[in-house]
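Reviewers asked in the last cycle whether our approach scales beyond single polypeptides. To address this, we selected a multi-component target totalling 852 residues and predicted its structure end to end. The input consisted of the following lines:
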Amino acid sequence: MPATAPPGAALVQMTGIVKDFTGVRALDGVDFTLRPGEIHAVMGENGAGKSTLIKVLTGVHGHDAGEILLDGEPVRFHSPKAAQAAGISTVYQEVNLTDNLSVAENLFAGREPRLGPFINFRAMRRKAKALLDDIGIDLNVAAPLSSYSIAMQQLVAIARAVDIESKVLILDEPTSSLDRDEVEVLLGVMRRLAADGTAMVFISHFLDQVYEISDRMTVLRNGTLVGEWATADLPQSELIGHMLGREAATLEQIERAASAHRVEDEEPLVEARGLGRKGSIAPYDLTVRRGEVVGLAGLLGSGRTETVRLIAGADRADSGALQFEGRRVGGHNSRTAAARGIAFCPENRKTEGLVGDLTVAENMILAMQASRGWARSIPVARRDKLVAEFIEKLGIRPADPDMPVKNLSGGNQQKVLLARWMLIEPKLLILDEPTRGIDVGAKADIQRLVAELSADGLSVLFVSAELDEVTRLSDRIAVLRDRELIAVLESEADMTTERIVDTIVAGGRES
Amino acid sequence: MTTQTLTERPARSTLFDGLTRYVPIGATVALLIALYLGGVANYPNFDSPQVVAKLFIDNAPLLVIAVGMTFVILSGGIDLSVGSVMAFSTMACAWLTVDAGIPAPAALVMVLAFGTLWGLAIGAVIHYFNVQPFIATLVGLFLFRGLTLQINSEDVSMREIEFWQWGMTHVDFGEIRDGGFWLPYLSFVAFAVVIVAFVTLHYTRFGRGVYAVGGSESSALLMGLPVARTKIGVYAVSGFCAALAGVLAAFATKSANPLANVGAELDAIAAVVIGGTLLTGGAGFVLGTVAGVMVWGMLNTLIAFQGNLSSWWARIVMGILLLAFILLQRVLARSGEKRRT
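The resulting structure, written as structure tokens, was:
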């Protein structure tokens, strides 16, 4: 049950917030309270309205109804700059810095130390160094931001927000590109800030981190408020139940479905022999049988994506041979791959997959139209029927075929992309990080779909950073390290998270 | 409290990074030196310092609009109106002083103010109505050419007015025959513009904001930078520079030709790109633009010394150079991306 009004005056009090996007109600009467010095997690599935709530608070979006009080005073910010001036800073999931400028300039852009009208670069570099030291990172502050990894850029963004001496710091999925050490640094910074009295709003899909760091949680679902709890009073299972609004047993069912199904006797669909590309992935052998799910596991940058891109024809191999349905494939590229029945959902759905301004239906039929040739249009009735069928089957929300895809949440965009490839009835489906950055519910939907499709005889190549997911879905797992395929795990006993980690570590020792 | 420290070295050494950053401008400077040495080797008197000085006399107006264009391109925009605004400004100078009889200093202030206001207005249209800069400034290209011809379709002379003699008044640096040279006041105006632009771009918040907006406008917005002020500001700078270039042209020729400077905006863009500024914004230098303008001037000088070549050869070579520099930028950008992943 939601907790009763806790002690302490509210720093931020949002009441009855309503936000409409061209006909879709993204927030419907949401209340949110933030107290000084607390770390408050906002939880919910993708599309629940977390990001919209944050963007209303930070002045990116205006709200259509409701009230925001900051320190008891009604406020309404018209730009992120205005919110920042009032003491509300934000760190977004995507690094929002300009990577053509130096680290120091990014930290102090818009508030550089000056001598008269001129920027004092020496003082700026010194302050930048001190600020980063304080947080626990050591960089060359004069180097362009673009010369650092995304994770480090994210930490720089956080350092910038921290230094603005904000009363309220909003962290929207700040950890999605960080590794364990980097997450520890971030959580350490958060604890220190909380001790100093800064209130923080924390949004993350990583439940462990949320439980480790947060004091309270507000749960949203479908744009409405489910409730607010003290973290200690809300067990994970209950939280997931609140977020999904249904019993979270779906994941267990997939496990059973996947292990029930056997493919050892099937003939190979794809056989890669010594396939490789210089500077991208060392030559590898890989076989995918009909109806088989082959997972690719490895650390970020280990060559998982590069491996599947060769099979998908997105990159050209410069060594080895590829056989598809027993025939050698020559002159392989994205177009011929699609014609052969190889569907590839790339990692970055926004830039490589979907056309944001086209509608859900238009995005779905793109590949199907391409495979028919542009001259032969798809009858409207058939199109509408297919689109409706896939919206229903994949649980795309909102279930409106005429909605521009950019208005959908990440998880739902991913489903649209999947539907696009399902429509051409491929023989091999290549999914590169299909569940990255999407919530538990959409993840479960996509995993369930993969299991169902493979049971129907579709072969799937599945890349994911989440080892749990790979082990749960795969019939076999290819393990990669340092741009080399180092092992293929086949037996039931080998396909555990621990075994994959051991293989990666051992693969490193040999080389 | 003990915290662990994360250290990361830049993926590229700063030295390497610095080098890649300076490759395009290095190529431009090398080219400039090669052209000059080529001229010295082939033509008598090419080594006279006045040959170099003349670059800054003939091309002072181009230099000024190219500096304004550098601001716009660095911010990720483009300004096609500068050639027409420049011609309009020259014509306005003539009309205000010769026909309307307004005192020349007052006319000069009015022309400069008008150019700046035009820039502010078109910048506001680009920012607040989210119009493509290409289209918005194309409006200016047509509008001001038409207005110029509407004021007078003939040449107007300003010789009678004493004020317009000021620009070509010159400062001598030694006797020409002893290896000296001279520069008119208008060249010093152009130098002043370059210095102010350099300091503004590198050492002020507005200047760094131009780079930030050119790097990523949405990030700049979320970082709380004054994006509107910056974007509108660069067009105001460009408008001011175009008007000032028009004034310099009035000084240089003491006449206004309604069909002057057709295509000057494209010369300016070419000079900016050859000077190493990325057309996508966010990277480049105003001093590169100076080198770009000098390359253009040097080509024209060489053709003049050759004597039997048509002046269109300067454009032909410029076209080829532009292609080479755009390809060079792409190659560098691609190697940068590769290094990062």
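The first strand of chain A starts at residue 12 and ends at 21. We regard this as preliminary and will revisit it once experimental data from Aim 1 are available.
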